[in-house]
Amino acid sequence: MKHLLTFLLLLATTSLHAQTTVEKWGCAELSFTHEAQGNPFDVTLEATFTNGDQSLSVRGFYDGDNTYRIRFMPTEEGTWSYTTRSSARALNRQKGTIEATAPTAANRGMVTTDGALGFRYAEGDRYHPFGTTNYALALFRPEIQEQTIQSLSKAGFNKTRLCILPKDYPTEHDAPTVFPFEMVSKSVDEAGKTVYKWDFTRPNPAFFQNLDRRILQLQELGIEADLILFHPYDKGVWGFDRMGEEFDRKYLEYLVARVGSYRNVWWSLANEWDLVRTKKYEDWKTLTRIVVEADPYRHLCSIHGGSAVYYDYHMPEYTHVSFQDEGPLFTMTAAGTMRQIFRKPVIADEIGYEGNTAFRWARWSPQYMTHLVTNGIMGGIYVTHGECYNAPGVKDWVFWSDGSVLRGKSWERIAFLRKIVEEAPEQIRPADICRDEVTSTAGEGYFFVYLGQQIMRDWVFNLPDSNSRFKRIQEGDKFRVEIINLWDMTIEECPTIFEATERINYRHYDKGHRLVQLPEAPYLLLRIRKVES
Amino acid sequence: MKHLLTFLLLLATTSLHAQTTVEKWGCAELSFTHEAQGNPFDVTLEATFTNGDQSLSVRGFYDGDNTYRIRFMPTEEGTWSYTTRSSARALNRQKGTIEATAPTAANRGMVTTDGALGFRYAEGDRYHPFGTTNYALALFRPEIQEQTIQSLSKAGFNKTRLCILPKDYPTEHDAPTVFPFEMVSKSVDEAGKTVYKWDFTRPNPAFFQNLDRRILQLQELGIEADLILFHPYDKGVWGFDRMGEEFDRKYLEYLVARVGSYRNVWWSLANEWDLVRTKKYEDWKTLTRIVVEADPYRHLCSIHGGSAVYYDYHMPEYTHVSFQDEGPLFTMTAAGTMRQIFRKPVIADEIGYEGNTAFRWARWSPQYMTHLVTNGIMGGIYVTHGECYNAPGVKDWVFWSDGSVLRGKSWERIAFLRKIVEEAPEQIRPADICRDEVTSTAGEGYFFVYLGQQIMRDWVFNLPDSNSRFKRIQEGDKFRVEIINLWDMTIEECPTIFEATERINYRHYDKGHRLVQLPEAPYLLLRIRKVES
Which residues make Cβ contacts (< 8 Å) with residue A457, sequence separation at least 6? Predict the structure, then answer.
């Protein structure tokens, strides 16, 4: 109930010619009443919003009940004046203004890339994606959807991946009952299979209103919504993967018109694009361009392949890489290579999930899931969590897909790691790429050594001379070491202050050859910071 | 002497209007005498060769001594007629024909990509690059150059990387004495440094004639010449890395005119492009396009960065990837990732060298060098050898750079591995990418299991159900196993015939749970082939 109220408050509706106030990066909504002749979805509607030199055009959309809406996210403070254009005279040449105020503290703006290999909020803070996966977050029973949101509110993730279109998958226990298009008929064929017919010219407002709501709930929790626009999990059940070029375009444009003005939206053209048999390699470029052209804000945009299948991530439409491949997470060195190749931020969005299923992609131990996420961070990329627990004999919900509650153990460790990453002054990356397999850097005098799956009694203080693009260690620099236990989620300071030698064979040692005494535990991450003198 | 004769025989010179015969993929050479007014290098000269629908245009070049030459490689058998165009009337509108005959057995044509992730000779055979590195192959004392060629004639490599422009490097004992441009002056400045002045409008024919000769010697040995067009090793000594845009272009066009009609030429725009301080990121695109536009044959073309620095390999000008990064060779899984990303063939052209120097990039053991090459092959990419032995106290030659003799131990193992790779029916690649870290496939019923640095007593017969794009194992398939010792270079057959179970948890085992007994040795590669029944 609380969420529903929030949702209604967020939707600042307006009547014609009215002036409305919304915070920068918030979403202003104009609504218009019009009874269309024929299919109301065929009415074109768009508006251009202007503020000084800036001008942004967005499409409106039909939301049922003779209601048309235009949503707009002001990207600058100040007065934005708008004019509409429409094929319906009643909706054409409507004018008004939007007053964009300063964003409140929780609103740091849309996330974009930082121009290099990381992400930033538009307001300037660095954004480190620590995401999870909830394919059917907005698709199954409403009470499960709410439960999923509740779980996310406690988990510490700042991103999740969700499918727009219904999915059919062996782990699902519910089938969707609300669909993205108007159902024309539902029948059972001779083989006993349910056959649906859809009117793809008529999106179903109720379906998309629910989606809006879930995205805004995520926004309120500070969670980016990585929207998966197509996927191969229709499996011939509904046919949303074979609507054809014309309706794919209409679907995408409708979706972007609806949710493109929500600041926490990302576009993922597909999950496992190579497994979508109804679309060819080049089709994805066309679909990607449709989305990017419809989106005046340039939300983050990528595409995700099946296991170790990469797309043309160099395309300017793709702001970042979203790959599925476990191999590059087995070591921080392999992750580091991924950081080097693409010249864009990299997210490993599916590298297997924590779980206990019979599927090999869904049975990592929580320890190994945490380890893979850590390897990615040490390598300078980001890794997405997912969880797949089936309780034998019990029809259980699988968080990765169906949502509901988290049952695993890695999510808490990942939240702990997130804090460490966010405290670091720079994006963490290998200090001495492909030469040092345990040490990363987050700036001058700020290192991490990850001991991974080993249990060591002690560690001989030593750091590489190379330090990414940052200033190198100088002889006499003093360092303190904290022992971070990623599994127990503890941080303990080592009492010794270490003093760096000159460079000896590419490395610096402690002048007294002193050791860091370690607890008898794996998954230790040493945070090593220079002591300012 | 033998080589010089061969060289002269290969150069089928011709007088005006003559008809000359050359084999397909051989090099026909037209020569013209003309005494230019002014700088003879300023005379433009090109010719178009036509054979039916095919038409290829190449530039000619001035070779000193009032001699102009046009070289042409016929890409089809038959009669090619040509017409010249020149700014000098005497060289203009010269006409004639070239008769291209069937290639002899040793001539399999120019190497190109196979349209996927491998290479082929134009005549159809698959080409697997097993290369080495001889930066100064054509640069230092002639007797050392000859010695290097002699070494290569015995080594078993089918590719080498060599620099065109002189290099200065701590391991060199000789400085070049013949230079690519006419020297205007040589003096010593106040600081005692030798200062050269060059006329970049006048290439030095003697320098390039030697280069021609070395390339043709390599060709005769079946070795591809991967020509490095720029590099960061000038170190302010001669200034060939800062000629400026106009002279860079002239240099490239002159070089392509001279050697672009030799079938074994590849273009590598640079070694360690990022370390060439005089050129910017975008400059490499310009330079690459100059080469590709000047080359009507579309020789293989790439660019090579410093450690873990990748370029925009998606550019259509680049036929393949040529990276420097050791990390992706530490495991076959990491190499397999590289195979997946680029949608082009991948060569790891510098992953450290076998040697004993103080430099960490030049002190791999021969065992580890062999291991890295094998990891690459198992991952579906190719890895280049190099060798850097310094004998303490002795001014020795370093094969990687200076050339001369091979002193290491990996080259022989790599030649042995090459035979195994060439026997395989398909390019080797991971059978079950990122899931199986030891098994590769070369087709239906043709697997390799690499046990790497482990010494195992026995190996439980087991293979993955996934088999890249090839047909999977069926229950009842029978296999024989050979134990290949990559270090001892032996192949031993295991007496047992194994019989595959049905798929059990993604794998197939032997029905009798039988083992392969192994010798007590590391670097074992099992070749497992289906027995045809």
Answer: A517, A518, A520
Residue B44 has pLDDT above 90, yes or no: yes
- Please return the burial class of A220, using the count of CB atoms within 10 Å of its CB with bins 0-12, 13-18 and 19+: middle
Check CB contact under 8 Å for B334 and A338. Answer: no
Q: With helix as H, strand as E and coil as C, how does A262-294 read?
A: CCCEEEEEECCHHHCCCCCHHHHHHHHHHHHHH
| pTM (2 d.p.) | 0.94
Q: pLDDT of A186-229, one tens digit each?
A: 999 999 999 999 999 999 999 999 999 999 999 999 999 999 99
Domains contained in chain B, CATH given = 11-101 (2.60.40.10), 111-423 (3.20.20.80), 431-530 (2.60.40.3950)
Write out pLDDT tens, residues B60-87: 999 999 999 999 999 999 999 999 999 9
Contact B326 A506 (CB under 8 A): no
Non-local (6+) Cβ contacts of A92 within 8 A are: A84, A85, A86
Of A274, A257, A371, A313, nearest to A113 (Cα)?
A313
> CA-CA distance, A233 to A239, in Å (whole number)?
10
- B516 backbone dihedrals φ, ψ, rounded to 5°: -95, 120
Mean of all residue pLDDT scores within chain B: 94
Instruction: Tokens 């002239």: give the residue.
Output: B250
**Distance from C-alpha of A87 to C-alpha of A104, rounded to nearest angstrom:** 37
Token duo for residue A215: 């995205």
A337 φψ region: left (φ > 0), alpha (ψ -120 to 50), beta (else): alpha
- Contact criterion met (CB below 8 Å) for A263 and A27: yes
Residues of A within 8 A of B340 (CB-CB) are: 308-310, 325
Contact A223, A160 (CB under 8 A): yes
**Which residues of chain A, if any, have pLDDT below 70?**
1-19, 170-173, 391-397
CA-based nearest residue in chain B for residue A315: B314
Residues 488-527 in A contacting B (C-alpha not used; CB under 8 Å) = 505-506
Q: How far is CA B465 from CA A269, A364, B297, B436, B506, in A?
A: 30, 20, 42, 10, 5
Q: Which 3 state secondary structure label does DSSP give B366?
A: helix
Q: What's the pLDDT at B176?
A: 85
Confirm if A81 and A96 have CB atoms less than 8 A apart: yes
Give residue B2's pLDDT: 44
Taking a C-beta distance cutoff of 8 angstroms, is the pair B68, B84 a contact? Answer: no
A333: chain B residues, CB-CB within 8 Å = 327, 330, 334
Contact flag B433-A331 (C-beta cutoff 8 Å):
no
A307 and chain B in contact, CB less than 8 A: yes
Closest CA to A428 of A484, A493, A350: A484
Which pLDDT value is given to residue B399?
85
Contact B448, B429 (CB under 8 A): no
Lowest-confidence pick of B96-110, B195-209, B388-402: B388-402
* DSSP secondary structure letter of residue A102: P
Q: How far apart (Å, rounded) are the C-alpha atoms in residues B84 and B14?
A: 14
Residue B455: C-alpha distances to residues A418, B412, B459, B509, B517 (Å): 40, 22, 11, 21, 12
Nearest to B337 among A314, A334, A340 (CB): A334
Q: Which of B351, B340, B338, B294 is nearest to B317 (CA)?
A: B294
Indicate the length of chain B as a whole number: 533
Measured between alpha carbons, how far is A44 from A40 in angstroms, rounded to an integer?
Answer: 9
Whether residue B10 is predicted with pLDDT greater than 50 in this model: the reply is: no
Question: Which one of A310, A317, A340 would you mutate to disrupt binding with B, by most B Cβ within 10 Å of its Cβ?
Answer: A340
Contacts of B478 (CB under 8 A, 6+ apart): B497, B498, B499, B500, B530, B531, B533
Pick the residue of A434, A436, A437, A465 with the most B CBs within 10 A to test the interface with B by mutation.
A434
Residue of B nearest to A308 (CA): B340
